[in-house]
Amino acid sequence: MSAHPTEGGWKTVSKKKGVKKRRDNVKGGKGMPHEVEFLSVAEGERIQQKIKEAVEELRSSEFWTDCLETIRRAVNKYCTIPLASPSGPFLGSGAAESLEYKKDGVDHCGSTLDSVCYGIGNFSSSVSSRYQLALLFLMLETLQIPRACCLLFDPLFTDWEKRFLRECGMVVIKENEEGKRSIDRPTLFYMIHCGKALYNNLLWRNWSPQELAQTILIGNSFKGIEERLPARVLQRDYTYISRILAVTEEAAFPSSGRYMDVFNDTSIHQFPRKKLDAKPTEFWDSPAEPRYQQCEDLEIIQKGMECFSVS
Question: Is residue 262 within 8 Å of residue 128, measured between CB atoms?
């Protein structure tokens, strides 16, 4: 299977037969665990076509036009990035360019901004996940982020989905980080409808003015989380979300009836350096790693609980 269009069009490589057992996607509380058969060549081609159609549909939508403006304001506020035209060809030649960056051994690929995507779900079977992936493709293209600078992980990814993403030139993270990835340069985290613990873990791992100031997070509204959770639960289980609320700048994605179930409650979060620096030194001292021992509904798959394959 090839997941990116070449000059001659799309190509597909068949997969070995077998059965994959997995836990269902917990980020949205969807369904019960079930078995998923490996995709045939024809099924793989059909899904690739649906992804391509989702990209083109979003590209021509009013939602993307409005969303792009929201993203543009957020990114340009802290990072000087020349944004590309949003009307270019699907994926373009980015895969080849990304692979060249990887050959050169440049970790940041020469890009002003890195990208990390957690919890996008099974886009081979979920329509919502497919549109979320389509929006990611458009953002990478528009922000001129080489696909080798985009890292993805979901514990529920099938082998087919991992191969698809790699063929696109993206990097599939091999181990479940539980969102605990530290950064040292501007990074866009794309985490649509992820569990609250994942956002909390990310904040903990980057709990310093320098790192948080370089963090742009697209995910569930922190304001919405604050409104829905009792204050004692938020402070006990999701300490870092609770503590960062006062210095968070949040811009909501535009509302859309067409994509309401896909991008509802989604915002871009940023943490201005001036507000972070205004916090007293003790605010940043020795942050304790989240444990969630009293959390009744964790909403994420922790390390060691990932899906497994049977060949």
Answer: yes
Decide if 115 contacts 190 (C-beta within 8 A).
Answer: yes
Distance CA 94, CA 145 (A): 9
Mean pLDDT score across all residues of the chain? 80
Q: Which domain holds residue 243?
A: 19-310
Q: Which uninterrupted H or E stretch holds 171?
A: strand 171-172
Cite the DSSP H helix spans in the chain: 41-59, 62-78, 94-103, 127-142, 159-167, 196-205, 209-212, 222-228, 231-237, 239-244, 260-263, 273-277
pLDDT tens by residue, 118-165: 999 999 999 999 999 999 999 999 999 999 999 999 999 999 999 999
- Residue 10 inside a domain? The answer is no
- Whether 12 is in a domain gets the answer no
User: Which letter does DSSP use for residue 290 in this model?
Assistant: P
CA distance 73 to 165: 28
3-state secondary structure of 216: strand
Tell me whether strands 266-270 and 249-252 are parallel, antiparallel or unpaired: antiparallel
Euclidean distance between CA atoms 97 and 108, whole angstroms: 13
pLDDT tens sequence across 159-203:
999 999 999 999 999 999 999 999 999 999 999 999 999 999 999
Task: Answer yes or no: are the C-beta atoms of 79 and 186 closer than 8 Å.
Answer: yes
Domain count, the chain: 1
List the end-to-end C-alpha distance of the chain, in Å, as a whole number. Answer: 18
Given a contact cutoff of 8 angstroms between Cβ atoms, the answer to whether 160 and 128 are in contact is no
For residue 252, the surrounding DSSP H or E stretch is strand 249-252
Would you say how long the chain is, in residues? 311
On whether residue 9 sits in a domain, the answer given is no
β-bridge pairing 114-118 and 187-191: parallel
Mean pLDDT over 277-304 rounds to 84
